[in-house]
User: Fold this.
Amino acid sequence: MTTIRSFNPPIRTLMGPGPSDVHPRILEAMARPTIGHLDPVFVGMMDEMKSLLHYAFRTRNELTLPVSAPGSAGMETCFVNLVEPGDKVIVCQNGVFGGRMKENVERSGATAIMVKDEWGKPVDPNKVAEALAAHPDAKIVAFVQAETSTGALSDAETITRLAHDQGCLVIVDAVTSLGGSPLEVDAWGIDAIYSGSQKCLSCAPGLSPVSFGPRAVEKIKARKTPCQSWFLDLSLVMNYWGGGTKRAYHHTAPINGLYGLHEALVMLQEEGVEHSWKRHTDMHEALKAGFEALGLSFVVPEGSRLPQLNSVTIPQGVDDAAVRGLLLKRYGLEIGAGLGDLAGKIWRVGLMGHGASAKNVVFCLTALEAVLSEMKAPIAAGVAVPAAQAVLAAKGY
Amino acid sequence: MTTIRSFNPPIRTLMGPGPSDVHPRILEAMARPTIGHLDPVFVGMMDEMKSLLHYAFRTRNELTLPVSAPGSAGMETCFVNLVEPGDKVIVCQNGVFGGRMKENVERSGATAIMVKDEWGKPVDPNKVAEALAAHPDAKIVAFVQAETSTGALSDAETITRLAHDQGCLVIVDAVTSLGGSPLEVDAWGIDAIYSGSQKCLSCAPGLSPVSFGPRAVEKIKARKTPCQSWFLDLSLVMNYWGGGTKRAYHHTAPINGLYGLHEALVMLQEEGVEHSWKRHTDMHEALKAGFEALGLSFVVPEGSRLPQLNSVTIPQGVDDAAVRGLLLKRYGLEIGAGLGDLAGKIWRVGLMGHGASAKNVVFCLTALEAVLSEMKAPIAAGVAVPAAQAVLAAKGY
Assistant:
């Protein structure tokens, strides 16, 4: 075979839907020496990890841990542990990830009752209430708080309350919200939640923080059938991640990835999670002012926009792939394409974690304006950065 | 909450059953800047990864990729994709991991026919032949080539031939063998195989290289029921890992972990996989001479011993946990405990990847002899290192 050399990636600025730029402190943490997954020092780190996840999720749930695989596996962990064959699950879909939830429900041998909203809109709580009324035997309501495919924020508190009123549990996708948008697992009573390391935590992809409340734990304990996944079976995983000094081997934990997540959560604690939420909103406001000055319009209605994921409509006549390609080639700037029906129609611009910065806001506006101008797109020139800067100045940055 | 600081792990020497010591080049690779999972440069790295895995597995199987989770998920990938409800699967068990295969079979809705051998012994091909004769309707034979819980090496070539003679596919656990012991996926006709990053590749834990041959792909394509796991469904994963420049998003790949695996495989190619196999054997011979000089006896019969995992019986009257605890505390040396019925009865000493070195051989012998002497264990003093060194010298190290 041809000799293959070490891989040295280029330096990018990641302003897509994730992975976001990983902070140098986190990259450095991942390069620390590997130790054993049963080493007492590592076990101490695991205890800290749980405390840090409690802080980030705003919960005291005992069953809180990082699944040893990306967010999709966190999603599957929730479904295969909580859903039993024959269950009826109400699944809200307003983008790609609601559809993935449906797949998870059906592959768990259950029935998915779909509550559909237009892509780009939040989940409509009235439709959820109607579905609950029409299906009094539903066991679970599953929805995405922060729909990464569109940038829509749904009202997790209200949907959870509606579900609880009818005795349903909720499963919440917080992959893109954790650390970037208000999220109150205990105050809102969320029963099961999963997130990802590679969004607003600025960590490398590969881990999925999850948390399960008392009602969820009860449902898991009362299962009549074993969890269909051995790898994701929480009754087994907890022998390793459960409290105490006696940790039983289940699978080999991704040690260095966990170093990175620990560092990311330490940084979140240093900043303060509420400050992080505010910073994401402030940077979104600045970027929004710039986008609007350029003449770009948002996909998601005001009031339901995720600050960390800004979806805008691609101006008529502009070649999606050519713009993204040139931004990447010339400026090393990655922005996201649309998914599914929105492919070629929207861009998704992420402001996540430490990438939610004034630097990234003006860089993105500058590069996008330059490339769109070169391509003779119908945009207003010379006004985006000043508009963004005015917001930044007003907010004290 | 109490303020939690950055985690700085101690420096260990990892001579347990894995994770093994991660080479500094690999640690450094994991700290390189994260880029997007659809970045054309990353896609180029994925193509290289496939070539490197082809080299390591000695295969040309198109369906060869690293699963984005630890070896246990690689195991589950094989079972949930290849096993259908109602199938009959012959599972060979001679340690912990055969038992885990049984769990996977049953959770896939299939029946496991167990072929049991004593822990520490290799799988007996005669028993496999008997089971095949007794169950002509079996679809798959699953076995562990390198049983990490005991250090026994089974004859993968012979078991595969027996299975094929009856039209069965094989699923092979090569978690501990890949890179450390001869393994010929194409020459032996192995249909499905999984491994782990954290053993003889000296990489951090968290990834599981897998490979599927043409018969396995045919069985996957002919499935009557969808794969029960969305995350591990190869028909979906292949839209991302499949060849060509068009890669469809499935889940966010663990970018930095993949940098590490790429570097580990580049290093394997630099050394040459056959040289790596020989080095593991040479270091095992040296360690064995030292252990025998100390008076320790091997658990696995000569001829079936894995060079990379040396299981020895704990001398009578010696406190297992006290010895391992002191080795760790005083010398930063981790060796492995026994699992299951062998807990407290054996130690498992790994010589894996770049840890299969003369330095580690003499360090382990020195530290173990010192600690056992201090604890007044019945061992011979002052002879282990000379015995090991004689082997090293004879082999030209």
Summary: The longest strand of chain B covers residues 88-93. Chain B has two domains: 24-270, 273-394. The radius of gyration of chain B is 21 Å.
